[in-house]
Amino acid sequence: MCGVVGIVGSSPVNQSLYDALLVLQHRGQDSAGIMTCHQGRLHLCKENGLARDVFDQQHMMSLPGDMGIGHVRYPTAGCSSSAEAQPFYVNSPYGICLAHNGNLTNADELKQDLFRDDRRHINTDSDSEILLNVFAHELGAETCKLTFNENDIFRAVAGVHRRCRGGYAAVAMIPGYGVVAFRDPHGIRPLVFGERDGDHGHEMMVASESVALDTLDFERLRDVAPGEAIILTHDGGLHTRQCADNPSLYPCIFEFVYFARPDSIIDNIFVHKARLRMGKKLAKKTERVLGKDKIDVVIPIPDTSRTSAMSLAHELNVRFTEGFIKNRYIGRTFIMPGQTARKRSVRQKLNPIDVEFKGKSVLLVDDSIVRGTTSRQIVQMARDAGARKVYFASAAPPVRYPNVYGIDMPAASELVAYQRTEQQVCDWIGADGLIYQDLDDLIDAVSKKGKMAVAGFDASVFNGEYVTGDITPEYLHRLEADRNDEAKAQREEDRPENVIGLYNDR
Predict the structure, then answer these.
(1) Coil, helix or strand at residue 132
(2) Is the pLDDT of residue 339 over 60?
(3) What count of other Cβ atoms lies within 10 Å of the Cβ of residue 460?
(4) Active-site annotation holder among 2, 37, 79, 252
């Protein structure tokens, strides 16, 4: 999972890009990068780490220009080497840089085609570099001339859609021309754009979440439609076109459960309201399964579950309170490689307030249960703090299948609900009772009331139904081999320390 941003401004955009990455930091904490364009020349700074650590005053001064793109990254493909930090750059044709959120499910096939047929070299294991080279080749193949226009770009994006499968939302920049943004034909990964009146003229911005627009005083215009491409030209123009043959909107439902900020709007669905409805649905099931008389207090697992937990407590008329204090400088534990590292991080990340647990029957509410490592330790923390009974509720259904569209969920065998019943999961995490949200209730909670803009949701992590229709058992087997803890550890050990790249001096 990653965050992307692109801005075409009327004055230097380096500060705005940096501010946007800070707001999108929840989407990726592994690396950050910014590339700007000034008088036809590209300037890049990217490195492993949080945005606030990657960019200092000297780096910001070395990023001039009134248009640029930025990226924050979780490594869902390849390794976490700084060589795979984004944006990526390719010089032919015209010079193009690109930042990408998602995952190409036919990346291996595309890599072979690019080498054999398109004569393009891929220097990393990142599918983002593959996507960049596909787009670059299609643009070059379409133009074969010194100049190009928006029609050439739209034809190139149509070529990307014909060749690439999976979930992707991308921003690309072409020196002296503008920023191009496009979204896969199913709209799995989010992308939104807006405008503002800057100090020196009209400015346009595209980003993974609307909250990035809000904080920079851009007016949200709308989401990029599935299969659509938008072009923000350097002269202030806006061009849009549908570039896919049969687009249909199936956004990833896990965005609403966990990844997106609650103050974001994705495909006209307010994330905060969706999570409130999740809590109401979960409250009704909790009352059916457990009964509210058994619960003294509802305690959320910070932070994403807080909205659903408040709604659940209100619906059950049970006291809601904060019982855990979170250290905000620890990363998301289900993505961390290695069980030992995850266990240590959970204890560093959360600390219970004993008085809220002692002698009480508590209902802990989390957004989801993935590996179960966090849930198991939290249940034990509650018991150690003196809880009489510990029940656990998940605002999402059991996660039984890996995500293939850009969320670095673990291999299927490392998912706690994989080939386990709900009671077996309950026993494994050590709870006195476990309530999972039903999938139909989750979909109903996320669906916008009234006229529904989405055709459906990608809920593959819950039901194993992948909306692109190209996921085979063989693919999942290869994914299992690539994503297990041992494979990740080996990649980290083998990652290149010296790779040719385009960096500012650090």
Answers:
(1) helix
(2) no
(3) 23
(4) 2
Contacts of 400 (CB under 8 A, 6+ apart): 412, 415, 417, 418, 461, 462, 464
Backbone φ, ψ for residue 494 (5° rounding): -95, 0
Q: How far apart are CA 480 and CA 402, in angstroms?
A: 8
DSSP 2: E
Strands 201-207 and 361-366: unpaired
Sheet holding 2-8, edge to edge: 41-48, 31-38, 67-73, 2-8, 201-207, 192-198, 219-223
Please write the tens of the pLDDT for every residue from 198-248: 888 999 999 999 999 999 999 999 999 999 999 999 998 999 999 999 999
Secondary structure, 3-state, 193-223: EEEEEECCEEEEEEECCHHHHHHCCCEEEEE
Asked about 2 being catalytic, the answer comes back as yes
pTM for the predicted model, two decimal places: 0.91
Tell me whether strands 192-198 and 201-207 are parallel, antiparallel or unpaired.
antiparallel
Planar angle of CA 207, 237, 215, nearest 5 degrees: 30
Whether the pLDDT of residue 190 is over 70: the answer is yes
Q: Are 212 and 24 in contact (CB under 8 A)?
A: yes
Q: Tokens 């248009």: give the residue.
A: 67
